[in-house]
Amino acid sequence: MRRTPARRGKAFRAAAATILVAGLPIVVVVGSATPAAAAAAPAPGRVAYVGEHHEELAYAVDGTQNPLFPTESGPTTVDFDASGSPSGGLTWVSTRDERRGEIYHLPADAAPDAPATRLTSANTAVDRHPVLSPDGTKVAFDSNRGGPTQIWVVNVDGTGLRQITQVPAPTPTSPNPADTWPTWSPDGTRLAFTSTRTNPNGEIHTTTVTPAPVTAPRITVSGSTGGAIQPAWDPVADHNRIAFTRTSTTTPTRTTLLSIPPNGAGGPSQLVPGWDGSQPGWNAEGTGLAFVSRRLNPDGGVYVKTVDDIGGGSPEPDLVYDENRNPESRPTWYYTPEAPPLVVFTHVAVDEQGEVRDVQASDGSGDRDLSYRPGKLEGAPAYSPDGRKVAFSRRTGTYAEIVTVNADATTAIPTVLTRPNQRNAEKDTDPVYSPDGTKLAFVRSNRIVVINATTGAELFRVPPPPPTTPQNGFLDGEPSWSADGQRIVFARYVVPPVAPPPIGLRALAANPLDGLDTDVWSVRASDGGDQVPLTAVDDTVTETQFDRTPRLSPDGTTLLFNRNGRLRLWSLLSNLPTGTQRDLPVLGPANDPFSGLQYPAWAPDSKSVAFSVIHGPSHTRDIGVVTVPLTGDPVFRWLTTTVGNENQPVWQPAADLEVLVSPLPAEIQVGSTTTLTVTVTNLGQASARKVRAALTLPPGLVSQSISTTTPGAVCTQTTLSCELAGPLPAEGTLIYNVVALGQQTGTYLPTASVTGSILDLGPANNQANTTVTVTFPPVDLRDVEVTMSATPAESFKGGDPVVATYNVRNTGRIRATGVTLNTALPTTVLKRGTVVGCTLTGASCEVGPLEPGQIASVSVALSPDARFAGPVSGTVSPRFARGIDDNPDNNRATSAVRVLQPELSISPTVGKPGSVARVVGRDFPAGVTLNLNWATGINVPSRPVVVRPDGTVEAQALVFHRDQLGNRLLAGTGLRFGEVEAPGFLVVPPSFSPPGFVARG
What we know:
This protein has about 1000 residues and is mainly beta. About 0% of the residues lie in helices and about 45% in strands. The chain contains two helices and 77 strands.
């Protein structure tokens, strides 16, 4: 396919009328982008349909819009989200090469037929909101190619792609941080953008481009009831302002246009007072502001206002283009040489071919293209039972096949399910899945075929109806399965005996059943047998009955079909109609009368019906929804109101499984139980299938039993899980109980989870936990503890004994029938002495029995006869009439013992009578008096020697004149230690004679 931008030729420039808007010469161009939305709750389910519209870039001349890129041939490409630069050129998003859309650039001076340059290539990424730099050399845009949506920049030749912003990690106040909608500063060095990093509704932040940003300061503060989005930096630096959209989450919602200095100083000011406005875009001079307003049309139109350098200007904006029921968005200014500027915007235009799209079922928002459609005609979408796939008919030329795509709009190329015979021009249409998803029924050239949905193998074809006359012809179409999968209903035309077969004549019709006297039939879903005409009995001579598109309600209670443009309801009993038919009253707006209702589709909860309605003077088709109340009047609302025709809606089957777990009681004692109740509730509209809930118990809790009262649930003790054999309907519950025993004290978090095969719209509530506290029993607590001390903690060899004292106490609530104390004492080093409190046998003794609160003391004396430093301990082993000690951590006690050995040294070791020796001691008890005496020779009274605080001592020892010669010892005595002797001291004669002569004399 090739598109030629219409505005680049001389002929276009000559024909394009100049529109004077508030003194500004402009020509208008159109394009569309989705406005930034505030954070919302999980989506409610969607409705798929066949649409005949697309987005395109356009411009308006004298109130008439024209496509910027006229289609020459081939399928329609979606072009939207355009941005121009004051220096010329245009950048936008297009699906011309990739269905998700890529960014393209067109320079201002390009030749009329020159192709646009593709700047991005990331099939799995969503690239949006491109904006040209002031000099036209770079494009900034937002993309989720790196994970979260952030700001990127690329050169206009496609090189130099780099990420600019980095959103912070999610927080409870900002669970989905994203940076979007960039805009350039006048000098091209900075960007402003919308971010949800500080406010889920959006705030304006700024950042540098080069060098890489460190921070992105916020310049707006919106509060909790609004946001600031869609910034547009005034290209004139002296104006010093950024326009943006202020949103409000209050009712009624409203958007306004404000401006703020780039540093945020002084706060915002009004740009278009009194007007609803959004998506601003400045002209090159900073004097014209294009924007979108819902002033005349709730879908939005494009306006321009003259704005001076202080925010004033023209009193009222001027209308550029506003087509009723046709949204316009993101206006921008497109500059080219020798031509006035154009205001370009995105426009939703009519398309000639059908495409499968979907919208939110709640309000019709979030319109998406689900299919990949190069030259195809698509129709009759149908969701798979799990809500994750959409099957539809895709026609190419003279044949049509059934294909599937992902329901989340992520499919690049559809998967082909059926292979029709192209030579015979077979057409496969109207697909519909069986409730269990194993089969697919569809229409092949006016015959209903049932195949295996996985392998594609044909299972059977619905045979001809019972003949009333030979050679009966028939046309079948529009099948639908019953909720239990036992029956198939469909529309059938039986050729009257006198009429020629219409098959060949109607081969080219959009639907061969159109305009024929059709009835609803029912057949057995296993083989197509047991064929029953359901509505033929209502045929009359005066009115031809067109009974079409039969749909069996998901709850199995009602048959819904279209009769002559009305919706009819018929109660069911065992899949067969019973009672009287009734029309479903559908009252639309008084000023917009309906002329026909078609293609009804049940909501998954059987409480609403979507349908296509023909209305208005142009007889366009849109999707409406009406409630089906048991009593009272139905309530109607529009689901789609865009330009073009919307047909064949189908409701997505989606569930929302919520799991909760609660204990009773929440606090138990060791040895007792709690009952954990797991409750699964289906908060969605569709019945959930293959529902399985499981409970995980942490160590300390042990399951005793599992039980359920939910019919059809099968529970397993080993996995603490329950599964439903059948579906869990909307608002239905699965409940089961697990009895858990508390084995150890602590606080525990049992966790419950749930899974199902159907699409779950709220996965955040698929897991839950609760708190169970396990404590000691107040009556049956069994606990004996031991504590000990060793005194003195420091002793001295030969001094006072060291006494190890053990206190054994029954701290429990029941009697200990026997308690054994095992001592760990260094008896091989320190001799054991007196034992008080029990008789030690080896290292242990029997202490018990002990009553609750009773204490038994055992003391063991140790003689400090050797140097020692180390621990001493004791362990208690209690016995009880039943059970064991509940708190074994306090059954052992430890203390430290240190035995020092005092020492004396003397110097010199040789001396004459009358000499004095220096005596030094260590490791003595601090503060005691040390008595020194010669073991041989004369001792004279001396002053007491007191040991210093550090255990050392210094003194003198005198050898008297004419005292005894020879070797002698110096002894030290005192309290708290035994006698200490210094090494020998030799007394020699006063001469230098050898010691042998002294002996001789």
